[in-house]
Amino acid sequence: MAKVGIIGGGAAGMFAAVWAAGFGHEVHLYEQNEKLGKKLFITGKGRCNFTNACSVEEFLQNIVSNAKFMYSSGYGFTSQDVMDFFEQHHVPVKVERGNRAFPASDHSSDIIRGLEQAMKEAGVKVHLGTRVRHVSCPDGAVSGVVLENGAHIALDAVMVATGGLSYPSTGSTGDGYRLAKECGHTVTDRRPALVPLETGESYIPKLQGLSLKNVTLRVMGKKKPVYEGFGEMMFTHFGITGPLVLSASSYIGAAGLSWPLDAQIDLKPALTENQLDDRLLREFQSAQNRQFKNVVPELFPARLVPVMIELSGIAPDRPVNGISKEERRALVEKTKHFPLTIVGTRPYREAIITQGGVSVREIRPGTMESKKVRNLYFIGEVLDVDALTGGFNLQVAWSTAYAAASAVWENIER
């Protein structure tokens, strides 16, 4: 039997604790908060989209950074395995649009309760309100941890499951990065991801609260789009948010681009520019004597009308029969390429995840063990692995946690 210490009582830490104890180890879980799973509790607006019921191939396609690294652990413990685990631990599961899996109750607390009960049954020793100050790793191997109170705890293996920097109110302090560096690991640049974006145009705040459905968002890189997606988004007082925007933020970060960035929204993606021009022409011909400002509402949501009039450069009182072909084409261009300038992201407190972390080049992908320090493991968000929304980031946590837990005994014996 090995004595295993796990630093962090979030999704990855609790899951690793269950399995490591189930494999016969003495497991100690150290959590600096007064309770477990604080970030898990707010996941999915409190409903907890805990995985995605898709194939492993699709799971890997939804990982933005270092998908290849997740190949082994992704196949080693799949989303079906995760759903089976919770069902077996008395947490009924349901699958909704986009294969998103939730507890049937829509309460994230059920996921946490299921993990806590599983840990209790497995004999995990949980230490709440306990911060780990250092990991002891002399001579290239783990020997234990040093707690905030100075106590040294001898351990055979240590798993770092401290999460990232997002939602700092839940205790995400970035401790794991410090612990990794102290043990000689490289930590890549970190940035907020799956996060709203700030824009520079003065007309965007005027659209605050307006949601757009079935639009295309395109963000330009140096020579080609770094992101292009179809779906929903919303305007805010600072810029833009919503599913399309959150995904765009991750791809922007992964590309390492600097601000500002040009972006555009195709407000009518179902129509080509020529088809849209034909529609405008029909609208104008059927209302020849009406003023431009009274025809535009036929084309756009009410909140968007004043901005589109402003961008078109056409006087609102102009009769539509006096609008030239060139002016009409300019309106088409603005409709198909509604302009935005992205000037930055919102802070970590509004980010779902952290992009960047412990370099996966220094981690064994099949076991999550450090290549630099024997019996030291990194699991979950502390790693430089991030994915899109839809339950994929929590699947990263489950898969990496299981890989580490199932590898501990074999690694200690070698």
UniProtKB/TrEMBL annotation:
<dbReference type="Pfam" id="PF22780">
    <property type="entry name" value="HI0933_like_1st"/>
</dbReference>
<keyword id="KW-0274">FAD</keyword>
<dbReference type="InterPro" id="IPR057661">
    <property type="entry name" value="RsdA/BaiN/AoA(So)_Rossmann"/>
</dbReference>
<feature type="domain" description="RsdA/BaiN/AoA(So)-like Rossmann fold-like">
    <location>
        <begin position="3"/>
        <end position="406"/>
    </location>
</feature>
<protein>
    <submittedName>
        <fullName>NAD(P)/FAD-dependent oxidoreductase</fullName>
    </submittedName>
</protein>
<dbReference type="InterPro" id="IPR055178">
    <property type="entry name" value="RsdA/BaiN/AoA(So)-like_dom"/>
</dbReference>
<dbReference type="InterPro" id="IPR004792">
    <property type="entry name" value="BaiN-like"/>
</dbReference>
<dbReference type="InterPro" id="IPR023166">
    <property type="entry name" value="BaiN-like_dom_sf"/>
</dbReference>
<feature type="domain" description="RsdA/BaiN/AoA(So)-like insert">
    <location>
        <begin position="191"/>
        <end position="353"/>
    </location>
</feature>
<dbReference type="InterPro" id="IPR036188">
    <property type="entry name" value="FAD/NAD-bd_sf"/>
</dbReference>
<keyword id="KW-0285">Flavoprotein</keyword>
<dbReference type="Pfam" id="PF03486">
    <property type="entry name" value="HI0933_like"/>
</dbReference>
